[in-house]
Amino acid sequence: MTTELRFRGSGANPRFSEWLAKLKRTGSNILLTGEVPDAVSARASRSLFGREDRRFRVLGLTDQTIRNAATRLPDDASFDDPTTWIIDQRRGERSVPATAQGFTPDSDSLRTDDARQLCDEIQTAISFYDERADGLDPAELRVGVDSLFPLVQEDRAATRHVLGTLCATVRSVHGMAHYHLRVPDDEIVDDLMGLFDARVELRRRPRRNPEQRWYAPEIDAKTPWMEL
After folding, report:
1. Which residues pair with 94 in a beta bridge?
2. Total domain count, the chain
3. What is the overall mean pLDDT for the chain?
4. Were 197 and a residue from 2, 3, 28, 147 both cysteine, which residue would form a disulfide, CB within 3.0 to 4.6 Å?
5. Phi and psi of 172, rounded to 5°?
6. pLDDT tens per residue, range 101-139
């Protein structure tokens, strides 16, 4: 049976703290699930992108229901920052650093709901930042994909295959990536979960702040619900 662990505060379980530290040190891929409003997904994304003096962020957008993509980034970052790389399949647009010319051909148009192309684009961004930084420090690279749902609806088998490749690339540079899938517990989550190091379930209840619950498969544990 999965053990329930404290996430923060007094009495935090040391196994969970050690596991989190390992994710930051070795690289990780985190699946975000739960039927939540766009604002809750954005809040979770800002938290996982984080705020640091030196951080490189890559954001892939596929979900047409997203109202304001900029809300995915923390308030000290923007689409215009040279440390931020945006791949927007919804609109067929990229926002990349000026110094990245030559990494991405201007003639290559972005296609809707194309998991393979999105993976290639994110890997290009990772290669650029790794080269620019002369080797990325652990957790310095942060990747976000919002969301997987259009991709798995288009072709789940292909999406699963390319996600495996992308997850391996993120770990190879000790980065941290999060992938939104706004569905509850169901067979899609079960089918994809083997690719990820952790799962964060999100929920929104009336007259309360959004909440999150972390699952740690490696140590067979989960946290209680806590404020996001």
Report:
1. 87
2. 1
3. 91
4. 28
5. -65, -25
6. 878 766 578 999 999 999 999 999 999 999 999 999 999
CB 60 within 8 A of CB 121: yes
* CATH code of the domain containing 132: 3.40.50
Strand partners, 87: 60, 94
The parent domain of residue 95 ranges over 3-227
- Overall residue count recorded for the chain in this entry: 228
Buried b (16+ CB within 10 A) or exposed e, 94-113: bebbeebeeebeeeeebeeb
Q: For tokens 């999406």, what's the residue? A: 159
pLDDT digits (tens, 9 = 90+) for 152-185: 999 999 999 999 999 999 999 999 999 999 998 8
Report which secondary-structure segment, H or E, holds 33.
strand 28-33
149, 34 Cβ separation under 8 angstroms? no
Residue bearing tokens 């929920």:
203
